[in-house]
Amino acid sequence: MAKPKAVVHEKKCLACGGCISVCPQDAILMIASKATIYQEKCISCGICVKTCPIGAISEGGDKK
Ligand code: SF4
Ligand code: SF4
Hints:
about 15% helix
């Protein structure tokens, strides 16, 4: 089974750009003022999840 990738909850995202600057994979892009994670690049490191000030990113998958 594939490792769950981080996902942005677009309705919450404030487009602060914080997650983009910390992603070691450059896997996050700002599209239409919402952070969008390029799933093929994401290595599920979780840094963006911890960085987002409003908890708009979750680790992905359904269970943990
Ligand atoms: S989990 Fe890591 S690799 Fe994936 S988008 Fe977030 S910071 Fe980037
Ligand atoms: S850190 Fe959170 S609020 Fe800021 S751009 Fe990323 S997902 Fe959006």
